[in-house]
Design goal:
The structure is a single chain. The chain has a domain at 30-144. Helix content is 50%, strand content 0%. The protein contains ten helices and no strands. Helix 4 packs across helix 5 (73-82), helix 5 packs parallel to helix 8 and helix 6 (92-102) runs antiparallel to helix 7 (108-115).
């Protein structure tokens, strides 16, 4: 018995409804537009922050990404930190020393000497100890900068969860 014999008695009696495809595509929104909602908390403008992030994601150092975005290096480091990048020039011990300095238990000179940081690292470490990353910013950036498997040239080289099973 062949396939044509099996399908001989089958006929279509109703038409299928066209339901379409539900989409929730936000790719038309630029990264700068997504960062505009965090404008008051950012140390730079949203377009500068978007340029900074794009350069940093492409592999530029903080200093080079800051130059591309035309903002100071310390401002770039603060922006990246606020947007969820784990940037911290302090060791855990240096962070505790900064906490003691901020609580008034140490002088600034003693704290800076004990931390072993230069002036800009000490200032950035102080900023990080006294500020929290912006809630929701990391998700907004991840949605805007994520690559699909078609765009990712290394997708074949990476293992997947199904490879373990």
């Amino acid at each position: 018995m062949g396939l044509s014999e099996i399908a001989a008695g089958i006929e279509v009696t109703t038409a299928q409804r066209e339901r379409g495809v539900a989409t929730a595509d936000e790719t038309d929104t630029s990264l700068a537009e997504k960062l505009a909602s965090f404008d008051e908390r950012l140390p730079c403008t949203p377009p500068a922050a978007a340029t900074l992030i794009e350069a940093y994601i492409e592999g530029a150092s903080i200093a080079r990404a800051a130059a591309v975005a035309e903002i100071p290096k310390t401002e770039a480091a603060k922006t990246l930190y606020l947007l969820g990048e784990p940037i911290d020039p302090c060791t855990p011990t240096a962070s505790r020393i900064l906490d003691d300095w901020l609580a008034g238990k140490l002088s600034r000179t003693d704290a800076k000497t004990l931390c072993g940081l230069d002036e800009s690292e000490f200032a950035l470490g102080t900023y990080i100890v006294t500020h929290e990353p912006i809630e929701g910013a990391e998700t907004a950036i991840a949605d805007s900068t994520s690559m699909s498997a078609k765009e990712d040239p290394l997708s074949d080289a990476r293992s997947d969860l199904s490879d373990l099973i």
